[in-house]
Amino acid sequence: MSENGMDLRNTRTPILSEGNAEEKREEIRRYFHATYSLDEQLYETLAAEKAFYLRPEPLRHPLVFYLGHTAVFYINKLLVAGITTERINPRFESMFAVGVDEMSWDDLNDAHYDWPTLAEVKAYRDRVRGVVDETIQSMPLAMPIDWDNPFWVILMGIEHQRIHLETSSVIIRRLPIEMVKQLPLWSICPESGEAPQNSLIPVAGGHVTLGKTKQHPLYGWDNEFGRQEHDVRLEVADRQAGLAVVEAADDSVFQAIAARARNA
To answer: What is the distance between the alpha carbons of residues 150 and 22, in angstroms, rounded to a whole number?
Structure first.
């Protein structure tokens, strides 16, 4: 469950504003490999190759797309940034480039896709891993790392891959049960119990500041940067929130909100 000494289930986003350049390079390299391996381990839960070509979520591509997508993202972004000038597989880097956003231009017609074999996608992923590893080791690195730094592209690829860990896991959970298998890395949570007693508590309005600066020490997507300030004024009826996290077994908070809406 580890990759070069890094626990795959306990990784941390690198702090980009501090540290020695060569130590940070190695930290990012370990973070990349841990993320890449964790991504591949997720798909090991599929019990048969045909599971990669099913569409358990009708508004998304088959899972083989996402296995290829997180790899081609690195190459396409390295090309856009001018860090590399060579493609590995132009067909893959087009086919696996664009996902589905539930928009009118999305193409979900399987007849329009000639999906490659699982072995071909895995071989492509291996080549991408090698290219990114070599890029991390050889590309000049100056600290701190901000969004004008070439290493920002590497971090973008890593964090994009970690987003798909979550989204692909949701798609996998929609597969028929015989299409998935239990693995030690993805153990079932051993903790369970009764939902806590919940209630609504008053919440005051106030001044809210959103956004972060380009000097923030962690990677961020472009929509996180900038600054917005708002004075939030709440009507008395809206100044309430759940005291505890709402559990599926306890819908009392939902019932209270629904009753309040009916009486509004």
So the answer is: 15
